[in-house]
Specification:
CATH superfamily: Phosphoenolpyruvate-binding domains
Strand order of the largest sheet: 3-4-5-6
Order of helices and strands: EEHEHEHHEHHEH
Largest sheet: 4 strands, parallel
Radius of gyration: 18 Å
CATH class: Alpha Beta
Helix content: 25-40%
Distance between the termini: 30 Å
CATH topology: TIM Barrel
Number of helices: 7
Oligomer: single chain
Structural class: alpha/beta
CATH architecture: Alpha-Beta Barrel
Amino acid sequence: MKLKVKEVKEDLVVCEVSQGGDLIQYDRVFFPKFYPEIPFLGEREKKDILRGLEYGTHIIAASLTNSKDNVFELKEFLASQNSEKMKIFAKIETEKALENIDELIEAADGIILVKEKLGNLLDEKIENAIIKKCKQEGRPIVITFSLTQKRNNKGCTISETEIKKYC
């Protein structure tokens, strides 16, 4: 889904839909180069983590992780719950996260590169550099991509092409 901002008022943004899609409750909305002052780890996230701990979850995929401070905040919360062994995978979804990728690779237990959220910010050269850095640091990396993308001219879906690239 893509929106074009038409007007900004004091507490309202008027947009035109340029590419449709579904927007559901609790979906996050991204504005390029705009990072609102909201807590990384809110009450809802803490509640979700506690529920995961009850069920024996081993890994947290931390959305919108933009800096090592986000990872440290999450580690601190896990320590307060005697769950220091829980692994944290930082989801790379924003330009800010890409800018801080080295510190995120160092701080997190793994990286999730969310290609569909990064769009044009992530070319093959940058992607390969991130994969290489993760391998050097011994960090697992997960790369996501949309399974609903258009087929390329060879009849394979983009996802099949992507899978072959990493095998």
